[in-house]
Amino acid sequence: MKLASLAATLLLTLATPTFSIPVEPAAESSSDASSAVPSATSSAATSPAPSSATDSELASWIEEETAFSQKGMVANINPEGAVTGFIAASPSKDQPDYFYAWTRDSSLVIRSVLHMYNTSPSDDTAGLLEDYVTFQVNAMGQDTVCDCLGEPKFNADGSSYTGAWGRPQNDGPAERATAMIMIADALGSNSSLVEDTIKPAVKKDLDYIVGVWSTPCFDLWEEISSVSFFTLMVMRRGLTDGAKFLGDDSYASTAKEIETKLDTFFTDKGYIEASQDRDGGLDYKTSGLDTSTLIAANLASLGDGFYTPGSDKILATSLAIKNSFADLYAINSDAGDGISYAIGRYPEDKYDGVGNSEANPWFLCTLAFAETYYRAINEWKSAGSIEVTDASAAFFQQFDSSAAAGTTYKADSDEFNSLVAAVAAEADTYFARVKKHAVDNAMSEQFDRDSGEEVGAKNLTWSYAAFITASAAYGGSPAA
Ligand SMILES: *[C@@H]1O[C@H](CO)[C@@H](O)[C@H](O)[C@H]1NC(C)=O
Ligand SMILES: *[C@@H]1O[C@H](CO)[C@@H](O)[C@H](O)[C@H]1NC(C)=O
């Protein structure tokens, strides 16, 4: 996210650097990754779930943390001194300065606010949804450096940020279109809001996406200009939602073209590589492994099996990402007893929360695993079965050594139930990891790879929003 676009900008201005930093497989640890794999992976078949005492302790902490996250998130909306609808990425104004409204962060955060509204409606929460619309419509009319709707972030007075930055970031307009459509669905009785404000805004964002989707742009981490899996996934969702909302099939046909491109990201490495067609920004993300792939499945898949959390290629990618972090951080040496590896953005990452040195695990990335697995469970239950494929066989073998391509688990069979229990236990280990590092419930952006202490922007709004959606999936009713 918010990096250091200075570094990205510098790299852009350098003549195509050719050096590349190899993925470091843990210099400091000699332990074999497979021996440190969290509990659910090796012993699930015999003991699929943690003891019920641990279970209920974790359950009550998740409830407590969800309530805290709602407060922490709402506290960063309409902060003092900002115009209506400004959502600070974090209250931190220095080291790092995150006191801006990123279109991405705001649009993902407001979906967690909407989830609060849908589960417990109130006028105050409805007001926050309307405020978001007000701020974003104003932002869409601002002069911007990119002279486009993909301008990444806006100031507290509603004007656009004009310093050097990685731009454009074209996932923002797509995430905004989806958020606005969801708000229209929730507040549909206010027809002036929907007809006069939201519909024209959604059309403007979608028309922009139709023009730019195949062109490289900066990714969600603001570091590399490329065509990325994450950005295409949110664009496909925005266009698909928009085709229905506006009654215009042409958006659906662009979404189909995007699907064809998305199908080229799963490579013979056996996982989805995050980006293609790089034309600027950082050049050392060589593995292509990136937690944004799971975040994309959580936020942007459409319940149709196309890169949904329970689909084979997403599951295969989750295993590859997990393994890439196993030995990367010193704190991961305690993984295994009901606690997962701590997960960062991608293994080659260097952003430490303020500048570039050694990167750390992130709360929202660790939570993405919990959310993916609970969404997957929900999906398998609705589908009535789990089908193992070549791509997903290694994933399922973590829990059932007899799983193989072609194996089917039928809902309600003992095999299905014990597999689902094992995957749920695995998902819980990611919550347990977050619990360990979210001291007094607060969540910053990152936690230190060596000490486990919170680092980076304090009270990161997206960390709280991510907890709310992970918790909804845990509760069996994933956020829309
Ligand atoms: C309907 O939306 C408009 C435009 O955002 C807003 O000014 C008005 O207060 C809303 N009305 C209600 C009843 O929420
Ligand atoms: C983070 O949020 C908590 C809870 O709202 C608050 O008590 C604390 O002061 C905040 N910390 C910072 C640095 O903003």
From TrEMBL:
This is glucan 1,4-alpha-glucosidase. It catalyses: Hydrolysis of terminal (1->4)-linked alpha-D-glucose residues successively from non-reducing ends of the chains with release of beta-D-glucose. The keyword Hydrolase applies. Its EC number is 3.2.1.3. Pfam families: Glyco_hydro_15 (PF00723). It comes from Phascolomyces articulosus. It is an enzyme of class 3 (hydrolase). Residues 1-20 form the signal peptide. It comes from the Eukaryota. One of its GO terms (biological process) is polysaccharide catabolic process. Residues 70-471 form the GH15-like domain. Belongs to the glycosyl hydrolase 15 family. PROSITE patterns: GLUCOAMYLASE. The keyword Signal applies. GO terms for molecular function: glucan 1,4-alpha-glucosidase activity. GO terms for cellular component: fungal-type vacuole. Residues 30-57 are annotated as: Disordered. Keywords: Carbohydrate metabolism, Glycosidase, Hydrolase, Polysaccharide degradation, Signal. InterPro entries: 6-hairpin_glycosidase_sf (IPR008928), 6hp_glycosidase-like_sf (IPR012341), GH15-like (IPR011613), Glucoamylase (IPR000165), Glucoamylase_active_site (IPR046966).
